[in-house]
Amino acid sequence: MMHAFPCGTLPLDFVGTLRARRNAAPAEKLASPQQLDAWFVEAGMFDSAPGADETDLESAVALRESIYSLVAARLAGRPMPPRAMSEVNKHAAGLPVTLCLHADGATRTGSVAQGLAALARETVEILGGADAALLRECARPECTQVYLDRSRGHRREWCAMKTCGNRVKAASYRARRHSATRA
Length: 183
Known about the structure:
mainly alpha
């Protein structure tokens, strides 16, 4: 698998395709149309690659950055940027992913635009509803992944315990152990 899905919410996982945003050189996980196709398939949005091209990739990155801009504004308690809202709403008005029932199951197919429409619609539902209050950013300084904190006490700190949570706890343990050996 080329992509990670720690959030359990596809639009927020999509935002995470630009990793470590605060670093001097963030890691771009949508560097080619083929990587965008792979993201859609790995996310389970499509059963086969939608056949992205460079224009689709530009559109996807613009939507991703608009979603991040809206989420960042929400996290900071600022008004949502009108240009980003317009971009998300434009995509949200698009056609849905095509579902087709067969004797042995169902298939999910469509174009990149249909996949982006699904991401935009879910973004509207998150930011325009009660889930917006659950938005958090990962507490690991190098990570900029955002997620919905659905934990019981709403005290989740990391996008995923398996990755960021484990790294933070291991680093803390090493620091305590190192200071104990110096004393």
